[in-house]
Give the backbone structure.
Amino acid sequence: MATSQKLTEHLLTLGQDTDKLCRALEDLQLGEIHVQDDDVLDLKAAPVLQDTINVTVAGDAGGGAPADVTVLEVNGIDTVVVTDCNNKSVKSFYTRNSQPGHSKLSLEGGPWGITRLKHNQVAVTVLDTSQIVTVEVNPDLVLLSTITTSKQYWGITSLTPSALAASAESPPCVDILDMSGHVLRSVCPDHEGGHILLCPCFLCTTRTGNILVSDNGTKCVVCLTLEGDVVFKYRPTGDTALKDPLGITSTSTGDILVTDTSQHRVIHLTQSGQFVRNILTSQDGVHHPWGLCVGGRGRMYLCASDGVKVFTCCK
């Protein structure tokens, strides 16, 4: 699709087993959903820029282009893990024994979405390969497995230790997968007579176990249940309209943060999809934001054109 080509250029520039499906969906009850906890982010406070991590490292063919980010605490070390589609690698950045360090794991294709699986493991979608890889974070990176999938996936989010949700463009959908890459359920919602999803780029899991989708094709944020029901669709007009929504995350309080890359801003929504404010704009030094996540100690990590920006947002 033209939209996916635009995004890639911007960065680089089943037959189903019925018994298995039933067992997996039984595991996916809301009480079983695994939602990563973080220290409470004070979204009423003004974010303060603390650091910008340069993701370009030795051996890169070109400048680093962070697409998505997550943060793990490994053996007491805060470790920032990013996907660099431009250099076909996943990278980790950390400080150990007062010394900055990094690790680089090269892949066959360009990595895009990333999600935490366990306290020291992540899963990453790899464009142009129809693969999802799992990676151990020590905080140096070790490839654990390569999962071959039936589609090329973009966004990804962990639902349980044994199930993922991933988004595809052809056809536009969100699939629930087991850790072998088998599709347990495919969600292609329609709403008001039309397709909601055209280019579902990024995903995240809410604290109640729903799936948030940032769709760059329909310019909206959609909240879906695991059964595919639409909880809400955020597609406003006027000053709050989304132009290029990409990264999305949900905090431990249920609030939603979404990036709008061409408008150089991060938007704060309530957990029911109501606009609150632009929490970050170009005046805060944010340019072309992509993926984002919330870490411990009231920190927000944001992929931008010049690296990963670290903001504190606490009382």
